[in-house]
Amino acid sequence: MDMQNFEGAVNAILAVLPNRETDLARLVRLITAAAYPTITVIGKYNHGKSRLLNELIGHDIFSVADKRETIHLAEHIHQNISWLDAPGLDADVAAVDDDYAFNAIWTQADIRLFVHSIREGELDAIEHQLLQQLVSDFQTSQRQTLLVLTQLDQMPDQQVLAHIQQSIRDQIPDLNALSVSATRHRQGVENSKPLLVEKSGIVKLQQAIELAISQVPNARRHEKNQLFSGMQQQLTQLQTELAQTQQKLQHMQQQQRQDFDEGLIKILDKIREDLHPILDITGQDDALVPDSFATMFKNTAGKQQRAKVQIAYSRACIDINSHLIRHGVVGLPEDQQTHVKSLDTVIVAVFGISVKFREHLRTLFYSDVERARLQREFAFYFEKSAGRAALVEQLTQLEKQLGDIAQAQTALKMLEDAA
Ligand SMILES: Nc1nc2c(ncn2[C@@H]2O[C@H](COP(=O)(O)OP(=O)(O)OP(=O)(O)O)[C@@H](O)[C@H]2O)c(=O)[nH]1
Ligand SMILES: [Mg+2]
């Protein structure tokens, strides 16, 4: 699997699990990393991180200064260990520097040396919070953090020193802090003074680092498994939830349609029933006798009959319309609207505008063919209504999301096979 495929796989997973960005970066690092364990320093600027690394490596590799000095990540490979020097943390000064530092601790490092200058007294809030995060990260990832108190030589008063060491122990009881002095170590080494070397604390720190390094292979294996299974679980859970929602919505979709269809049939049956007395006339249909000039202002039998037919038809329309509104069908779809508002109703669209005579009512409500057409057409407008369209849209979205999850699962599997 090449880098490009890695990127594709990572993006497929990120599309579904955006909050796993750091975890995925770490996972890719674990899959592609060289066999070397990686050790980084982390801590506030000017606390002696770079100088500590130089002492541990035994060469002046990283630049040291009495000011804010390291601004990028620097890597040096020494005796099969990758040593990373990171910029000092200081959110106020340069957020970008912090990005480098965070990348070092969360993505790259197997072991973190958290550096705090004992000259500064207790840990401040930012250091404390980050250390706690690192300690709790150990519970999940088994990545180790060593707390290193630097510039021990700057604390000549043993009582004050002991007091600060105790305060820090109280602040972060889960970590055993190691106190060191880079300058004493350097002096001891350069002047061949084993006692000074011993007193520098660097040797003890080196032993602690050795121990941590020996645990890296197991920790990495654990971390990989934990990341894979964590993401798999998250994907499965998401998939289950979405599939349940999908089922619910599909059921609702069916149920709504069934309610609409059944309700409409009931109403059409009732209209038939109601129309009986009006349609069942024997003999001549007075409604068909047109008014003449002579009867223009008279209340003729024809007028009465026509009024009766109109009233019956209006009632039928009201019944159907209230059924439509109850089911969210409030008007014609936009592409069917005209500039005549009064004609822009579903009723007019389905019934037409010239229902005037008994014959029209008979055809509309008594013929089976026509009734099937009415059911079909009203259902068509029902499906076009806003609520129904929104439901379809929701289902389309869900299907897409489920597709994305399936892709993310495949991508995760690919990564796992590459690991
Ligand atoms: N006396 C004494 N000075 C130290 C010790 N460690 C580091 N220093 C000095 O502290 C200053 C800062 O050291 P650096 O190693 O550059 O500090 P840093 O944490 O890397 O700083 P940034 O790169 O800016 O984040 C330098 O002047 C070092 O010489 C120590 O153990 N004792
Ligand atoms: Mg530095």
From TrEMBL:
Pfam families named in the record: MMR_HSR1
Domain annotation G: ranges: 39-150
UniProt-listed Gene3D superfamilies: P-loop containing nucleotide triphosphate hydrolases
Coiled-coil regions, chain positions: 228-255, 388-418
InterPro entries membership: GTP-bd, P-loop_NTPase
GO molecular function terms noted in the UniProt entry: GTP binding
Species in which this protein is naturally found: Acinetobacter guerrae
Name this polypeptide is given: G domain-containing protein
